Amino acid sequence: MKKINFLYLFLCLCICTSLGLAAFFLFESFKYEASFNGNAPIPKYDFHFVLIGQEKDNPYHRKIFEGAEAAAKERNIFIEYVGPRQTNVEEHIKLIEMATAAKVDGILTQGLTNREFKPAIDNAINRGVPVITFDTDLEDSKRISYIGTDNYEAGYKIGEALIEDTNGQAVVGIITGLLYSNNLVLRVQGFLDAVEKAPNIKVVAIESSNISKSQAAEKAHQMLRKYPEITAFFGTSALDGAGIAQAINKINPITPILVYAFDDLKETLELIKEDKIHATVKQNQYEMGYKGVSMLYKVVTGGQIPKTYHTTTKILRKKDIRLIDHE
Ligand code: BGC
Fold it and tell me: Are residues 107 and 71 in the same domain?
């Protein structure tokens, strides 16, 4: 009798352990979908792409997603949009790794830094997940293609605009989103190379805003206190121009300071209308998203795409904004 009881107990234990193990593995296999998709059921789709933005709620990145979503809808692609709340290389890399581990059909990401992003991108490619970089390229990686602004050229263009507007006479402060991000390094380099042609343009300082408007305002304020002779600013990423304008407003200098910005966020355009920002480089975020998804689709359906696809940029001044208003 005792023997039978023991056998029962042993059998029950075996069944419970097997059920437990089965539940654990089932949970593990669904974990990725749950964490990437906020537990929502994934709709029926032909392909599953992941778009990783540097800051998920940054209006610049939201516009890229708008374009990506439109292209995805036309092709029955499920596009998942993820990204850190605030720029964070570690989190960004983790998202690339998660998408790779889940074997999604394609990844769109920026290639912000060589050291951290190259291994993550190369690993995705080695494991059969195609990667296209957008906005910020990483040419040294195995990424299939890059879609976005020619960042060096864009920086160069704004430098030339400054020379033209000031007759080659200016003392400049630069507020750059990040000192290490590949696209912004290229913008600053392009700008410096352009103004080198004008011996009376002097760049006195370069500081980082951590792509935040409030930090851009703080850094510009400190810069103006240290270098009251500044007559122009160059803000290299989407929120820098508005931050710089805020700092100038606070100091209220006697002679106007020219602000050169990046991107066409609503606030930037308003500030141009109010003469608080002098000019901005309009990038084509929507196209980066739209074309990015279309190109990835071509890759997964066996088509060929170019190694680099540069989207257009345009310098906007007050007169151009009036034209946009009337469109
Ligand atoms: C840059 C992006 C950046 C964004 C930050 C844009 O100008 O192209 O790389 O994430 O600004 O606001």
Answer: yes
The answer, yes or no, to whether any atom of ligand 1 lies below 6 A from the CB of 239, is yes
51 has which bridge partners? 81, 108
Distance 32 CA to ligand 1 centre (A): 28
Q: Are strands 314-316 and 279-282 parallel, antiparallel or unpaired?
A: antiparallel
Could you read off the pLDDT of 158-194 as tens digits, one per residue? 999 999 999 999 999 999 999 999 999 999 999 999 9
CATH number of the domain within which 133 lies = 3.40.50.2300
Q: Are residues 60 and 108 in the same domain?
A: yes
Strands (E), the chain: 47-52, 77-82, 106-109, 131-134, 145-148, 170-176, 201-208, 232-235, 258-262, 279-282, 308-310, 314-316
The pTM assigned to this predicted structure is 0.88
> Which residue, by CA, sits nearest to atom 7 of ligand 1?
237
